[in-house]
Specification:
By secondary structure, the protein is an alpha/beta fold. The protein has one domain: Rossmann fold (3-Layer(aba) Sandwich). The protein contains nine helices and nine strands. The protein has helices at residues 13-24, 56-60, 63-66, 89-117, 138-158, 192-207, 212-224, 238-247, 250-259, and strands spanning 4-7, 28-33, 47-50, 71-74, 80-81, 120-125, 163-170, 182-183, 231-234. It has a seven-stranded parallel sheet with strand order 3-2-1-4-6-7-9, with helices on both faces. Helix 5 (138-158) links the parallel strand 6 and strand 7. Helix 1 (13-24) crosses helix 7 (212-224) and helix 4 (89-117) packs parallel to helix 5 (138-158). It comes from Winogradskya consettensis. Residues 3-171 form the Ketoreductase domain.
Length: 265
């Protein structure tokens, strides 16, 4: 039996690598992009469809296709940085529409079919920052933590039907996302120096990060596990840092996270 997988944000980065990996495993893959016609190097065999997660009508338009989806990879998202007190409300609202509300609605649309067929996998692609929060990344951290919250609670509801929700948290990834990150900081901000220091370290860590292919391999591992674990983390020395978090005080973990980004906390 050929399973159908839908991967959001499949035109580049983790989404593209995941679409390719699932194709190699024999899945029928539907990949979403805001502009499928502008994809210059599509993955062979992937059916690309248009989806704008910021537009509720676009999300609802996926309902028919999602009814036949066995595997949903909620990967598409945006990155955002800025001092908490200076984040524009409209920017935070957009971030949550794209990163959280769109993924949640796609999941809601896919679940009835999965439940009826007795099989389903929903993967929320989060971020290790949800487990190790970082200054000036509060809105992004909150959006990824929200995804994990929906997955952790929802899996308890759906697992009796053979449907499993899982979060994959990548650490630093070399996908060029730093070039697309939105930044909000006032010209006279008292946080300016620290903010720029954090961004420089974040960009450095991402340039030295793991490949999208490694994250895709972890996503496929989660999809094919029976049952999958609640959380998979990959990159940024994940086994070490998650182990460390279990045995040292939270305040020390917080300090280490910020020192990795050159912030003296």
């Amino acid at each position: 039996m050929t399973r159908t997988a839908l991967v959001t944000g499949a035109s580049s980065g983790i989404g593209k690598a995941t679409a390719a990996a699932l194709m190699e495993r024999g899945y029928r893959v539907i990949g979403t992009s805001r502009s499928p016609g502008r994809i210059t190097d599509p993955v062979a065999g992937v059916d690309y469809v248009a989806l704008d997660l910021a537009d509720p009508a676009s999300v609802e338009g996926m309902a028919a296709q999602l009814g036949a989806v066995d595997v949903l990879i909620n990967n598409a998202g945006e990155s955002q940085s800025g001092p908490l007190e200076e984040l524009p409300a409209e920017a935070v609202e957009r971030l949550f529409r794209v990163n959280v509300f769109g993924a949640l609605r796609l999941t809601q649309l896919a679940l009835p079919g999965m439940r009826e067929r007795g099989y389903g996998r929903v993967i929320m692609v989060g971020s290790m920052l949800a487990s190790f929060p970082l200054a000036y990344r509060s809105s992004y951290v909150a959006s990824k933590a929200a995804l994990k919250g929906f997955a952790d609670a929802g899996r308890q509801e759906l697992s009796p039907f053979g449907v499993w929700l899982t979060t994959v948290e990548p650490g630093s990834i070399a996908t060029g996302i730093s070039d697309r990150r939105t930044k909000y900081v006032a010209a006279d901000s008292p946080h300016q120096d620290d903010f720029e220091t954090m961004l420089a370290a974040l960009d450095r860590n991402e340039r030295a990060g793991i490949t999208a292919g490694r994250v895709a391999a972890t996503i496929v591992k989660a999809v094919e596990a029976n049952p999958p674990k609640p959380l998979y983390a990959v990159g940024s020395n994940a086994p070490l840092v998650f182990g460390l978090r279990r045995i040292v005080p939270a305040t020390l973990v917080e300090k280490l996270t910020h020192r990795r980004h050159n912030l003296k906390r």
